[in-house]
Amino acid sequence: MILVLRQRSQISNRLVALAALTSFCIRHDIRVLVLSLSDYREMFEAGDRTHRITLLFLPLSLYRLLCRIVSNRFSRRILQCCPGIHYLNETRSWADLPPSTLQRGLWIIDQAGDWCSSMPAISHAEAPVIRKIFRYREQYHQQAYSVYTDARAKSSIVIGIHARRGDYSRHRGGVWHYNEGDYLDWIEQAKHEFWHADEGRIHFLICSNEPGFLQAASSDSLTISPLSDGPADQLLLSLCDVIIGPPSTFSVWAAFLTESRILHLFSRDQRLYRSQLRESTLFYGWSPRLERAAQKA
Hints:
- It contains 10 helices and 11 strands.
- It folds into 2 domains: 2-133; 138-296, Rossmann fold (3-Layer(aba) Sandwich), CATH 3.40.50.11350.
- 37% of the residues lie in helices and 16% in strands.
């Protein structure tokens, strides 16, 4: 059995990692108990058990106490002395262990959560089960659908732009922290690349973690998401025909939720082409280096 105790990362990083783990455990009939979303419990439907995967939300005070106890150096030494109990942290990943090993005993995962660089791909057959387990609350779905239907009524093609700002000014030295001019240029390129006379109008939906970003560009064909909420914006992107944005687990998870096509922006001088559209990277493993090579192919 695997106990996912803690993932010290943002929610989309956690979901991508949990999806890969869930897929692996479904294939190999390994029980999993997920506690690591307890501090995001308000985002998700009530805990459920599906295919030996249990999502359990503890009261926040109890969850934090449990994390402190288990991660304490003295407690960890005691656990490691107990037969059949194993502790996995940043120095040791479950992905490096054979299934037969993980099927024996209790494996406690207490990691940073950003396991994506070495995760196995998810199959399309497993995707519906994973979406059901990690489903956002219905209120977020309703909010996203309300904005989406307005955009769809104006066009036959809806393109979601994930304009990641804020924390991306520091992430990887700010290489993917694009400005308004960059996104407006890509929007113009997309109008020409994805539009055909027989396909009708294109409408753009902008989702950003920076309030007011691209607000001045709002028009009949470009809507700034009014949701200002991570789960709702992510679901809004998932409803789009195409998602365009910098490499991010936020857009990776959005594309996975509905199998939308995604186009990642790796540099300011990147030109957009239909041939760059791909499935969510969850279906072939998350690796920015491999993704970049695939875009150039």
